[in-house]
Amino acid sequence: MYFKKIIYSKIFSSFSSNINVFQHINIYKYTPFLFFLTSGLGGMILPRILKSFYSYLYPPLPPVDKVQQEYDTQKEKFLSFCKESQDKNKAIDPLFYDKKKLQEFFRDKDNTLEPFWKKKILIQNTIRGNILMIYDPYKLGFSYYCDNKTISYNILNTMALKYTRMFSCVDFFMDNEVIETHSPLWDIHLNEKKKNDEQDKEKDQNETDANDKKQLKKALKDAPFLRSKKNNSETKTKTAPKTLSKKEKEEWEKKQAEKEELRKQEASRIRNKFIYLGKISHFPFIQTPTKQTLTSSFRSVFTSLLDGEHDLQNNRFDYKKFKAQQNNQLQQS
Fold it and tell me: Where are the alpha helices (H) located in the chain, listed in sequence order?
């Protein structure tokens, strides 16, 4: 108890001495300055000054695009895998490099390629939710299941980069932004289709133009002020507005030229094919094997009799056939 009293007395004596020090200070001299800091313009301006000073010392970090970051990392891994590994196309069957043989092979419903690639599954968690991806060898594209329908091309492309690297099928990836040279499968299967489609489109356009001209000639006889919408849209060309100055016109022309270049680049770009097949719950995780009917190779007289009885039961004798047979017999007699 004695020691406690000594400790308390020392604490209170130091506290009282500090209070006595503050009593000698004249606070009334500093009241205008304190009033300016706590209220009025000082209370509004000082926080902003401190905030700007803090932002100058510690500038905020730029926002990180996680999709682009993941795409860049997968792209680097894919390119290094293409350069280093010798078995980069180990899983691809040689039939893919022969178009006619592959088409003949897919005519069989019980082919082995489709179930083989259905077992190669990639599941990944993304910003848009979980995505399950497989490769469709018949359509030559990446099929995917996801609960969200609206998924950007970059997210699917990152998954395709990872898929082809994991399962050693680099030639299935056809995006020419990543690969410097075209995939051989593109030249074998899809490039010819593109040429044929372009030729068919040109033929259809020529036919439609000829039909439109014939219809216009007929219509102009009765309606002299008739104008075709198609011809008006074709003749219209984008020109700079007259109100712009010379510098503004030059800038406008430069922007138009850049837009045309981007459009040409997009037209020449080769993209991967992605096929949406529904929600993840629609994917058949349990793949049931095809039922095979077992037939015995044993043959004897009794089996032939049983087969004949089976045919008799299936092929019933009609009354019309009986009457026709009877009439034939009467005519012959």
Answer: 2-23, 31-38, 41-57, 66-84, 99-106, 113-118, 153-166, 184-185, 191-222, 229-235, 246-268, 301-314, 319-332
Say if 211 falls within a structural domain.
no
Q: Verify that 53 and 76 share a domain, yes or no.
A: no
Q: Which residue has the tokens 């489109």?
A: 201
Neighbouring CB atoms inside 10 A of 158's CB total 23
Residue ranges in the chain modelled with pLDDT below 70: 1-43, 192-202, 213, 216-238, 240-242, 265-267, 290-317, 333
Question: What is the rounded distance in angstroms from the CA atom of residue 186 to the CA atom of residue 142?
Answer: 14
At 246 the pLDDT is: 73
Report the amino acid identity of residue 140. Answer: L
Q: State pLDDT tens for residues 266-305.
A: 667 788 999 999 999 999 888 777 666 655 566 666 666 6
The Cα 278–Cα 269 span in angstroms is 27
Both 119 and 185 in one domain: the answer is yes
What whole-number distance in Å separates Cα of residue 114 and Cα of residue 102?
12
In a domain, 208, yes or no: no
Strand-pair partners of 124 = 131
270's enclosing H/E stretch is none
The position carrying tokens 């060898």 is: 137
- Cα 312 to Cα 309: distance, rounded to the nearest angstrom: 5
Predicted TM-score (pTM) of the model is: 0.58
Give residue 235's pLDDT.
42
- CA 180-186-191 angle, to 5 degrees, is 115
